[in-house]
From TrEMBL:
It comes from Pelagimonas phthalicica. Belongs to the HrcA family. The gene is hrcA. This is Heat-inducible transcription repressor HrcA. Keywords: Repressor, Stress response, Transcription, Transcription regulation. The keyword Transcription regulation applies. It holds the Pfam family HrcA. The lineage of its organism: Bacteria, Pseudomonadati, Pseudomonadota, Alphaproteobacteria, Rhodobacterales.
Amino acid sequence: MSETNEILSEMNDRSREVFRLVVESYLENGGPVGSRTLTRALSEKVSAATIRNVMQDLEFLGLLDSPHVSAGRIPTQQGLRMFVDGLLEVRDLDNDDRQMLDATVGNNASDVGGLLDQVGAALSGVTHGASLVLTPKQEAPLKHIEFVSLAQDRALVVIVFADGQVENRLFTPPPGQTPSSMREAANFVNSWIEGRTLSELGKIMQDEITRRRQELDAKAAQLVESGIAVWESPDDKSGRLIVRGRSNLLGDDAAEEELDLIKHLFDDLERKQDIAEFLELTEQGEGVRIFIGSENKLFSLSGSSLVVSPYMNADRKIIGAVGVIGPTRLNYGRIVPIVDYTAQLVGKLITDRS
């Protein structure tokens, strides 16, 4: 169970309703909500003192905050996150918003760049926020690549193409990666990169992994046959090779050298599998996300939110993204379907053109 669901499940109906009403009022009006206002909005009739006690409990949980002494409450960033993840009711796309976005696509710009400019302007006009449009990812020859750690579960890949264009893509790295391991991965990829595309690099890595596995199998086979070692998971080549009675090998330099070589092959295979996963995640790019406040590391605007949705080509591969940047009190229920619909429109248009 996620932390959001766990907290929500522990809250009673009254606490959930008070929390929801405070957040919804904040998103609509931008100001704190007092207990007397809530007594008129709650489905059950309770005293203002009872509501104040509930709000104090929610404040203790880190979900609400009071900007001034004796003022009402507003949601914290954690509270907004929990509301978006657990209580947000996404509305159907408004007909007027749909027509405005459809009209933009109907303008039929002469090139993709012109189309995306029009889409950005329409998205900004419909949502009254700043629009973000990431152009289609290129499948072009590469010049250089870097992996940059942003947080334990967030990383940025910077891709420089041979024609000088630069792309930044967010991805979630495999568990246990460090800035040092990311630099090593980038160094290895860059040694193969010249004139190749991401897809071609991915194939090279898979070929390297297959070759290393075959070499590892051949080196380990003799030890396994002699009973000195055994595969922990014989059907899973990512399993470990367990050596039995290694003390019996002391003095047998040839066997020790074989074991050292096998260990080296295991380490090399693991590094290459990590790099292959990096490349795969780089191609996948980012899925649909809502970044609230300081979660929005790309812009470092603690008072802003980013709602972003990918768009895809005919092969269902993510090639770009559209989004809206605005204050944390965005009308998420309205903005989410607008961004989602815009992404679908852009993907369809680019697919039709190609």
